[in-house]
Amino acid sequence: MDRILVTGGAGFIGSNFVHHLVEHTDARITVLDKLTYAATRESLAALPTDRVELVVGDIADAAAVEPLVAGQDAVVHFAAESHNDNSLSDPAPFVQTNVVGTFTLLEAVRKAGVRFHHISTDEVYGDLELDDPERFTEATPYNPSSPYSSTKAGSDLLVRAWVRSFGVQATISNCSNNYGPWQHIEKFIPRQITNVIDGGRPKLYGAGQNVRDWIHAEDHSSAVLKILTDGRIGETYLIGADGEKNNLEVVQMILAHFGRPEDDFDHVTDRAGHDLRYAIDSTKLRTELGWRPTFANFEKGLADTIEWYVEHADWWRPHKQAIEASYAAKGQ
Ligand code: NAD
Ligand code: DAU
After folding, report:
1. What is the pLDDT of residue 26?
2. Given this model, what pLDDT does residue 79 score?
């Protein structure tokens, strides 16, 4: 694949994926990104301009999307409204970008005959009990809980229908919770790291018993590239790195890193409809495509990420006060 369009490539995971493509392929990459509050131009700044071009635009704008898609060998679609808490305050942009935006891209790849890979989330499967021995697999029924996850589920179903009805050459991946460099400080891990760096206390929703299955964004990128090149058309692959931790454990690991007492955090108002536990069984991806994560040790990946936020305070600090004020207004 010589030419790849990456939607949402100025966001957290999309920008990590663009770095991965530059390092591991010879492709020329066009990033299509609306540059919402969640985007960060800085994440692409160090990349060679003869390999990576940023086009500012909306994936739901067919007139902008169609000429960009024509002439590509593949589209990898990360662009989304991605934060559950925001979807509870205002679901409208989630429906517009995640559903209408994905529909617009599907129509463009259908017309141009271009390979499509759709990035989705494990949240489409709902949640698990803490003691459930099962994990999510590709056969788990969809059961999304939040406005965010229901729009992602809707976009997955559109992709499946465009494959079956129109023969679009598409694959889907559903990944668990990512961490790593360039993640917006509204999200759990960077919010707590930056609270502690600034001398504040981590904020745990409810009792902190909710479990997330953490994967480093670099491992998400290597899995997506593997599916893009070797995945079977029409198939869904779950991506996960066996990283289950409850939120209290993660907060205590961050506190320990900075030498702070393990109870130096606040319990705050819980999220409405808060999913209890996510857990991914990635056997299909590992056995069929031979993929393996490189950040097998979460503690080490977290320590690297903490150091990254220490070193990149100039990037996040200008936004910190506004983010915390908006959480505080909701009792969080
Ligand atoms: P993010 O919020 O950091 O980045 C999203 C990017 O999409 C931003 O650059 C934003 O400007 C862009 N964007 C938003 N609306 C757009 C529009 N209408 N047109 C063009 N660009 C637009 O998100 P992220 O955490 O990097 O997530 C990327 C993708 O991965 C999403 O599809 C998300 O559902 C999925 N995902 C995320 C996680 C996670 O843990 N963060 C896990 C599994 C799957
Ligand atoms: O599972 C994949 C999903 O992971 C992605 O699809 C989403 O795009 C991504 O945002 C993420 O969703 P979560 O809702 O799991 O992530 P978030 O970082 O918002 O929260 C992680 C957990 O931490 C969750 O149980 C809520 C909790 N939390 C969050 C914040 C921001 C806290 O306890 N305190 C906080 O301050």
Report:
1. 98
2. 99
Assigned fold of 3-178+214-239 = Rossmann fold (3.40.50)
Residues of the chain under the 70 pLDDT cut? none
Q: Which two tokens stand for residue 271?
A: 């999220």
Active-site residue flag, 213: no
Give the per-residue pLDDT at 238: 99
Q: Which structure tokens are listed for 83?
A: 């934060």
> What's this model's pTM, rounded to 2 decimal places?
0.99
Q: Which two tokens stand for residue 103?
A: 């529909």
> Residue 197: which residues within 8 A CB-CB, separation 6 or more?
258, 309, 310, 313
Residue 118 beta carbon below 6 angstroms from any ligand 1 atom: no
Of all atoms in ligand 1, which is nearest to the CA of residue 96? 18
Q: How far apart are CA 123 and CA 266, in angstroms?
A: 26
Active site residue 23: no
- Contact, 5 vs 76, CB < 8 A? yes
Does any ligand 2 atom lie closer than 6 A to the CB of residue 97?
Answer: no
Is residue 38 within 8 Å of residue 184, measured between CB atoms? yes
| pLDDT of the residue at 296 | 84
- Cα–Cα distances in angstroms (integers) from residue 84 to residues 6, 77, 119, 272, in the given order: 23, 19, 16, 10
User: What pLDDT shows up at residue 111?
Assistant: 98
What are the sequence ranges of the domains in the chain? 3-178+214-239
